[in-house]
Amino acid sequence: MQGEKVKAILKVGILPALMFALASAAYADSITLNSTGGTSNFTNGTLQYMGTSPLNATFLANHSTPLIAPTTAATASGSSSTFNFDPKGTYKNAVTGSNWVVNTAVAGPSCSGSQCDPNAFYYYQTTFTAVGGTDPYVGSISVMADDTAEVLLNGVVIVPFGIVGSDGHCGDGQPSCGAVDTVSLDGIYLLDGANTLTIIDAQTGLNGAGVDFTLELTAAPEPSSLLLLGTGLLGLALVVFRKAKPSGLVLHS
Fold first, then answer.
1. Which DSSP string corresponds to the chain?
2. What residue segments make up the domains of the chain, in order of their start?
């Protein structure tokens, strides 16, 4: 009889661990991306340079108008490589754990003459894998850019362009190269498998260009999913309790 009681206790004791494991699994998918990585020659391993598109002519005539960019580059780049660079005090330092990234090894804040990027939209892209599905993700993204930038997740804008304004070098409105623009993300739905993050950098001052970002997303099951999980766990608890209860056992208060 004593052995049966011990066995029952052990079986019931498994339930809390099982419940914790299942609940943890529901929240397990986490995405962390940033513009870091590289080799001794500073080639960046995270973002690929995709090419350029012409700037909006209306914006160039009136810098108070928000930028509107095509979702893809019109001109493909000759190389998909991107390069880390030192902001050299001209830009705000990169967000912790990331790097400022530019499309050529000679661009950035220290460029001069023909080395500097012509006025255009510059496209950068990275892909990542997610569990996706029907549950949303929550988190945040931090972005900086010269002059300013727009960020799209699977083709949907999650960070809009800032206003370039007088264009003294950095944009007047975030994101710019002088201040971090951190945007909270809630109710973000990812694809099951490959997902694409695109950063479109707007260069309007015939000067240095560059982007910097960090992104964190974590799966957050909706209440209906948690209710279904809880119902299943309750049913499992009843099954284990019935199997653990010895036949003919009388419970006393």
1. -HHHHHHHHHHHHHHHHHHHHHHHHHT--EEEEES----TT-EESS-EEEEEEPPPHHHHH-TTSPP---SS-SEE-S---EEEE--TTTSPPPPTT--EEESSTT-STT--GGGSPPSEEEEEEEEEEE--SSS-EEEEEEEEEESEEEEEETTEEEEPPPP-TT-SSS-SSSSSSSS-EEEEEEEE---SEEEEEEEEEEE-SSS--EEEEEEEEEE---HHHHHHHHHHHHHHHHHHHHHHSPTTPPP--
2. 2-24+223-244, 29-219
- pLDDT, tens digit (0-9, with 9 covering 90-100), for 107-139: 888 788 878 888 899 999 999 999 988 899 999
pLDDT tens-digit profile of 49-92? Answer: 999 999 887 777 777 777 889 999 999 887 688 888 888 888 99
Q: Tell me the pTM.
A: 0.78
Looking at the domain covering 29-219, what would its CATH class be? Answer: mainly beta
